[in-house]
Amino acid sequence: MTEEPRKAVRASDADREAVARQLAAAAGEGRISTGELRTRLAQVYESHTYGDLERLVEDLPEIGLSRARTVPEHTIPETLHLTAALHDVHRRGRWAVPPRIRASAGRGSVHLDFTEAVIEHDEVVVDARPNWRNVEIIVPEGYRVSTEEAVPGAGDVHDLTSAEPRRDAPRIHIVSRPGLGEIVVRHPRPGRRWSVRTLAARRRARRTDR
Prior knowledge:
Layout: H1 3-7, H2 13-28, H3 34-44, H4 50-57, H5 65-68, E1 79-84, E2 89-91, E3 96-97, E4 100-105, E5 110-113, E6 118-119, E7 123-129, E8 135-138, E9 144-149, E10 157-159, E11 171-176, E12 183-186, H6 196-209
């Protein structure tokens, strides 16, 4: 098949997932920024043909879908480092999740939304570090959540999940170091979304009423 007709061939879900893994690996190596990864992943899942996908990885070492399709699972970085030094950092929508995430909240908060995330392992370890601000983790109903190793500091650890966990669901294992900020784990809610700031405001209101 010549190059041009090949680019017009319709891509499969497996093709899109392979390119998503390649982009995640590139971000883990520092080849593309967090913002670029988020933008390209959004485009990956809107792509229809090989040509659409190849354009998203043509500036990376493994160029083109033909090679991206053979990228093994272990090319997803073992640890994703997210640092909100000055501004909030978000991971949401469709994104490839590595086995371990280190989320460090500086002057900004870190928000991890697993609602539409692609998780291919039984357990994801979230090393939450609410140094100054907060780490918020959103999980779908049915996910298993473990906060036993999340050590509270000046701020608290809030596990607001309530749904009965499914045996076949991924386990989000949260570990932490004490900090000034808080860790909040919750389910996505329709309509109004309660943020960490909202929880803090409610807490302050209760203290005032006492």
